[in-house]
Structure formats: C-alpha cells, structure tokens
Amino acid sequence: MEFLIYIVTGAFVGFFAGLLGIGGGLILVPVLTTVFAAYMQSDHLIHIAIGTSLATILVTSIASVMAHHKHDAVRWDLFKTLAPGIFIGGLLGGWVSQFIDASVLAKIFAVLAILIAIKILLDVQPSPHREMPGTVGRSIAGALIGSFSTLVGIGGGALNTPYMSWHNVPIKQAIATSSACSLPIAVSGTLGFIIAGWGASNLPAYSTGFVYWPAFLGIVIASFFTAPLGARMTHKLPVKRLKKIFGLLLIILAIKMFWH
Questions:
Q1: Distance in angstroms between the alpha carbons of the first and the last residue of the chain
Q2: Stretch 22-46: mean pLDDT, rounded?
Q3: Dihedral, CA atoms, 116, 118, 122, 127, nearest 10 degrees?
Q4: pLDDT band per the 50, 70, 90 thresholds, residue 218
Q5: Does the chain have fewer CB atoms within 10 Å around its N or its C terminus?
Q6: Above 90 in pLDDT, residue 213?
Q7: What is the domain range of residue 181?
Q8: What are phi and psi of 212, to 5 degrees?
Q9: Any long-range contacts for 73-77 (C-beta under 8 Å, 24+ apart)?
Q10: pLDDT-derived band at 156, boundaries 50, 70, 90
Q11: According to DSSP H, which parts of 21-156 are helical?
C-alpha cells in the first residue's frame, strides 16, 4: 500500500511538474511528509521528505525538459547563466538544512509558497521595459533561488518561473526554462541532503542520508511518464488559466504545511 501511494503521487506530481514547471516539490513535500508520518517513525520526517523530493525532481525535470525542448520553449541562453549559481546555492541550502528544525522548515516552505501565490493571483505586471539582468545579476539570483529551493525541496520552479516572468520572459518560456533549471537544483540539493543526513540517527531502512529510496523509486516510475503529458498541455492551455492553477495550488499546499 505504501509503495502504491508513491506511484499514485508520482503520476499526479509528474503531470503538474510538466504543466507548471514547478519541479514537483511543492506537491511532493507536503504529501511525503504526511505519508512518512503514517509509515515510519523518525525525528527527521520533513528533512527526508525534502531530500527525497529533490532526488525525484531530477528524473521529473529530465522528462519535462525533453517535452518542452520539442516545442523550442526552453531559453538555453538563460539556463547557461543561471545554472552555475543555482548549483552552488543548491549545495549550500542542502547542507544548511541539517541545522534547521523540522517545524521551522515547514513554516519557511509555507510562507514562501503563500508569497509567491499572492504575487501570481494578483497578476502583478512588470514594467514593459524590464529585462533580465546581466550575467552577474543572474548568477546572484541563481544562487539565492538554488539555496532557498533546496532548503524547502521545491525544485526551483516556484521561484524561477515568477523571477523570469517578472523580467518579461513569456510565461510558457519561463515554465520551460524553469524545468531545465530544476536539474542543477535537484543534483546539488540531493547531494546536500545526503551529506547533511549522513550521520543522522533514527533514519528509516533503505535511506541514504535524508533520501528515502523506496519513495524515490515509486514516484519516478510514474512521473517519468506523466511529466511529458503535462509539458505538452502547457502549450495548449491559456496563460491566465496556467497562472490561476499555479497560484491556487501554492495556497492549498502552504495551508497544508502550516496545519501539519
């Protein structure tokens, strides 16, 4: 039953990860925290949920990026300048997580999600002349996005997509490029959480640091097939509907994390 839950979750997460370019973590962290609480006893449930989420995002992102690339929607020029900072920030965020209490991590996740949701639902528009900053500015932004994203296991899309959209990158390109930016976040974040949890006590069997492999396997099996489907839908749904889905989803999950 536990493994079946991971497969169903993976199918759902994969679709929305491809659709919204969010990497899946915004959905995975609250769901995994709840499932882990039912099936295991550990003082590090949220840390394990975040670490496992980041590991699954690697596979989900690959499937999403391949689908978006077929539509020529990925801005590889932006990816190349954002990725180095994102990778360094991701390592830092994953390593720092071991020093932060689980309840604090949950609240950071919730506050961040609500702030992003408000911005999206209010449809705050950037200046028509606002453009993406230069290489230095993108590197700094990438480092900040990478560190915050890995700290709460969200894959970066929840920050990357609004960041690029605010700088007048078309929403569908922002979503597609965010999927690509989730790759360095997933790699560095997973490594960071494995290192952070290496010596932790009271971890479940079949885990490496804060990554729980049975959940990883069940989720990636399903999400690898549903992520491309969601990515294809990105290019068929209207922009306003995409933004509303994204914003409402963030609020629901933020409330869930506050409640937990």
A1: 22
A2: 80
A3: -40
A4: very high
A5: N
A6: yes
A7: 2-259
A8: -105, 110
A9: 73/172, 73/173, 73/175, 73/176, 73/177, 73/234, 73/235, 74/173, 74/176, 74/177, 74/179, 74/180, 75/164, 75/169, 75/173, 75/176, 75/177, 76/180
A10: low
A11: 25-39, 45-70, 76-96, 102-121, 135-152
pLDDT (average), residues 182-208: 87
- CB 54 within 8 Å of CB 210: no
- What are the angstrom distances between the C-alpha of 214 and each of 27, 32, 123, 153, 171? 18, 12, 39, 18, 35
Kindly tell me the burial class for residue 71, based on how many C-beta atoms sit within 10 Å of its own C-beta (0-12, 13-18, 19 or more): middle
> Binning pLDDT at 50, 70 and 90, where does residue 127 land?
low
Here the tokens at position 24 are 């899946």
Structure tokens at 259: 């409640």
Which tens digit of pLDDT belongs to each residue from 103-112? 787 788 788 7
CA geometry: angle at 44 spanning 42 and 46, to 5°? Answer: 120
The tally of domains found in the chain comes to: 1
Q: What amino acid is encoded at 81 in this protein?
A: T
**Cα separation, 65 vs 258, whole angstroms:** 31
* Cα separation, 29 vs 52, whole angstroms: 9
CA distances, 23 to each of 120, 124, 126, 240 (Å): 17, 23, 24, 20
Contact 224, 65 (CB under 8 A): no
The tokens for 234 are 């990105």
